[in-house]
Amino acid sequence: xxxxxxxxxxxxxxxxxxxxxxxxxxxxxxxxxxxxxxxxxxxxxxxxxxxxxxxxxxxxxxxxxxxxxxxxxxxxxxxxxxxxxxxxxxxxxxxxxxxxxxxxxxxxxxxxxxxxxxxxxxxxxxxx
Length: 128
Fold this sequence. Notes:
Layout: H1 13-22, E1 28-35, H2 42-51, E2 55-62, E3 65-73, E4 79-88, E5 93-102, H3 110-127
Antiparallel strand pairs: 1-5, 2-3, 3-4, 4-5
């Protein structure tokens, strides 16, 4: 098993409420521009992320502009990664913001958040 949980189906609808409330409390861990390595399709991008245990919470788009909200959880802690990706089909590029933090006031330190945020960012970039 990787460092990110593949038990994402265990997320309950009540957790989504906590998730949406807590996301504003998470600091930005990484903000970067991306160039896509292949043509973008909504389904293809979501599949790539799913294979890396990164789950799409919501997505949509018009006119070749897509916006994705994704999440992942560290396999052994309550550390969560929240992603907003704005991707353009026409230019095969976009911008990504990754936030990382512990849900429900779980104990954790900024060093572990920073360390795993770097790993997660590399994993995410590898998927696109």
